[in-house]
Amino acid sequence: MNHVLELEGVDYQLWLSPCKQGYRLHLGDEVTAPIDFCHQGDGCGILIIAGAREPVRFAIDGDTIHLHIRGRTSVLRYRDPLSALALAQKHAGQLVARAPMPGVVVATSVLPGEVIAAGTALMVVESMKLETVIRSSQNGVVDRVHFKEGESFEQDAVLVTLSAEGH
């Protein structure tokens, strides 16, 4: 089964398949093998990627995973594949960037009417003293920025609405 994880506003589809030394990680057209994880308790573990051991720390809050590896902290959001498909169909022609967790807007990077490309930084938000860049998952035109700098929002709130180019 494919799984979808959102990182910095971009969705990544991945899946695992078994192999002799653990699992193969399939991420798009790339395959990394072997990959394995040894849980050590209290949000700690060792991620083994092609024989290299990487210590990791993590915290899971519902569908949100806070992951610290190689000196960098990332916030991943698990998206149920069926829910992601339903949401995509619901907002066909209108794209939205949603809040991965409750927080406060630190800075906005775009204005309504601006044409943007996939991966463009839309805004910076802060949650639990951690800053996260919210990025566009697709090309489009900024339709509306829903929150101003300093305003707070809840998890899954629509932060920025985009329209598909040419609409």
From TrEMBL:
<keyword id="KW-0092">Biotin</keyword>
<dbReference type="InterPro" id="IPR050856">
    <property type="entry name" value="Biotin_carboxylase_complex"/>
</dbReference>
<dbReference type="InterPro" id="IPR011053">
    <property type="entry name" value="Single_hybrid_motif"/>
</dbReference>
<dbReference type="InterPro" id="IPR000089">
    <property type="entry name" value="Biotin_lipoyl"/>
</dbReference>
<dbReference type="Pfam" id="PF00364">
    <property type="entry name" value="Biotin_lipoyl"/>
</dbReference>
<dbReference type="GO" id="GO:0004485">
    <property type="term" value="F:methylcrotonoyl-CoA carboxylase activity"/>
</dbReference>
<protein>
    <submittedName>
        <fullName>3-methylcrotonyl-CoA carboxylase alpha subunit</fullName>
    </submittedName>
</protein>
<feature type="domain" description="Lipoyl-binding">
    <location>
        <begin position="87"/>
        <end position="163"/>
    </location>
</feature>
